[in-house]
Amino acid sequence: MDGTPRLGHGFRFQWEPAQQCHVLLYPEGMIKLNQSGGEILARCDGQRDVAAIVADLEAAFSASGLRGDVEAFLAMAIEKRWLKLETGAKA
Amino acid sequence: MNAPAKIGPPMWLLAEVTYRCPLHCVFCYNPVDFAQHEAELSTDDWLRVLREGRELGAVQCGFSGGEPLLRDDLEILIGEARQLGYYTNLITSGVGLTEARLDAFKAAGLDHIQLSFQDSTKEINDFLTHTRTFDLKQKVGEMIKARGWPMVMNVVIHRLNIDHIGRIIEMADALGAEYLELANAQYYSWALLNRDQLMPSREQLRRAEAITNEWKAKLAERMRILFVVPDYHEGKPKKCMNGWGNVFLTVTPDGTALPCHTARMLPGLEFPNVRDSSLREIWHESEGFNHYRGTGWMKKPCRDCDHKEEDLGGCRCQAYLLAGDADAADPVCPKSPHHEIVSAALENATNPDRQTQPLIFRDPKESKRLIEEAEASESTS
What we know:
The complex is a heterodimer of chains A (91) and B (381).
Chain A: E1 4-7, E2 12-16, E3 21-26, E4 29-32, H1 35-42, H2 50-60, H3 67-79, E5 83-86
Antiparallel strand pairs in A: 1-5, 2-3, 3-4
Chain B: E1 12-16, H1 43-56, E2 60-64, H2 74-83, E3 87-92, H3 99-108, E4 112-117, H4 120-128, H5 132-146, E5 152-157, H6 165-174, E6 179-184, H7 189-193, H8 195-198, H9 202-218, E7 224-228, H10 231-234, E8 248-251, E9 257-258, H11 279-285, H12 287-290, H13 308-311, H14 316-323, H15 339-350, H16 364-380
Parallel strand pairs in B: 1-2, 1-8, 2-3, 3-4, 4-5, 5-6, 6-7
Antiparallel strand pairs in B: 8-9
Helix pairs in contact in B: 1-2, 2-3, 4-5, 6-9
């Protein structure tokens, strides 16, 4: 997967103290994210491309080989329109 | 008392900021006696309510009414709500919406606008014949889209417009709607007064659903359509408000806090006012919010029913309105001893010779008349 993911139109990502988790807010709804989902989405800022997000996560959690899991999550999030993937000329 | 042990945070704070409205919808869910609850909260009261709701954990904030645009402090309230971290939703008919006002909402950080078609008896007719109302919605729709908000539309569907549903969808598409909610009227408050006029027959409903499904397939790429089936026809009680005191905390224009926007009608239940109590006390400790939480309040047939966790006995207001008992099973359920009331209403909707009274329009004069009528019947009974 190549490109730069950013939040879909109308979505907002934030930490919710009352839920003790990251959430995605959208018109009239909320998605509670598990820890890894939250960590991935926190890095989908429209600046970092997929490779940078993976590298960043691997550094933050002293892990390697995360690319497959991250791409699977991103593909799901794109399909659900939480994210848009900008490809080609970088945004 | 019978509340579940753990009460989570409300997801929604619904701020009904005013009952004032330029429209007179025959299906309005505002209380029929709204004219006696006109003392509106001040700006400072609302700002405190917003803060307390957020501290309680609410994430979605809806501004509705009446017509919320009639509060001239709306941009202040939206700004504070956004600042506090709410996702902010404005539910409006768009009547009176200007470029300047929308700019102020944008600057305040408003996240989402739902444009409703309220006054359908008149408005849908205008809308369907391309006259003034269509122009108004088109203008408002363009102003909304130009500022980067998604175009979300809601149309209340009933007997008088249901046969035009294809045309309604087509025109929503022409307005650039990305999301369209076709909500069948629910029979509370003004809509209950007008039920015989508003309830479609099963055949009308079936046809409308089929047409909607065709459009869903055709427009799948650019518009999401949600068709909300009426519970009378479905014969299945809804899990009302997704559970009493579970997801929604409504604050009405005069500060009364409710677990659902029509619950004020239930007799014998005290609902607290935000002028006297904090939202935390209201949500966690008040009798009004605890009374119908969970399943402990149920009696037969709900108490012994396999579906009791699934539908929580349906709607308390509907039980009260139709069965005269707020603790009863929702009469839309075939297991309810009062189900015949619902069957009779449905039967009546197919009767070509059915009697109908003139439509009663929601306005302060009618509301005052209905209050007087209710008082007169109380003093004679």
